[in-house]
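User: What would this chain look like folded?
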Amino acid sequence: MKKVLIVFSIVTLLLCFCSCLDNNGSNYRYSGEYPDLYTEAIHSILGSTGNYRNAETGHCFDPLLEVVEQDACGRKMFLYHDGSGLTNSVSLLVSQKSEDGIVYYYPDFNLTLGEFDYAKSQKKDTEEAGYIYYYPTGNYYRIKFPEEKVAELKQINDWGKEINIEKCITQTVVLKKEDPLSSEEKNALYEEVFGIKKAWSYPLYVTKDDEGKMLFVAVYYDDHDDYRMIIVDGNTQHNRKITNVTAYQEELAEFKRENNWKKT
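Assistant: Here's the prediction, encoded as structure tokens.
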């Protein structure tokens, strides 16, 4: 009986330890309040893994996701951070609407990037002029975005206006990030893009269009980190170096147009 209990205890520990085996968390499911907003974020932010991951244990946790504002037409502006992304920045996104398990949002320009403010004092009287600050619930540092970036985000996403479905793309709401390629396929893709075998990380899947073309992002770490957007179309890949990792939206939109990206 003791041997059985010992074996059972070991198996239980191994299952806990292995609850997040791959980059996206093989057993992870988002358990928060906003699965629709979670879905938008993980299909929009380059480099998002969809969860926080404890590097020592492999356990995965829900990302920071908090609604900070809502307009009269029901749009939501929300914070998202999962400890990944190209620069580990915090994202501020706008969602147009959610209905019947579908989330609606504008492509590419539905987000802007900000940063954690690690100042010792978190009092509002220490805020810098020219920034908008958010104070998420829980033990997070405050987060700041340049005022002009927030104003531009609202303007591009028609904040306060009637919702225009014709300008939206859609995603079916999910609870985890999809990983459509095997490890071997991602290794081969990395080698094809950079000319070397995978050194530090796999290409990370972002989203796909209506014709099945898949968008990935990958990075080669050296003295001058090389970030690439990759579109896989059947057996063909196209890639483009990201020149501005803190404001890549225009580059991403152009890259999609060049490769006949079609998403409704």
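The CA atoms of residues 11 and 263 lie 44 Å apart. If you want, I can go into more detail on any region.
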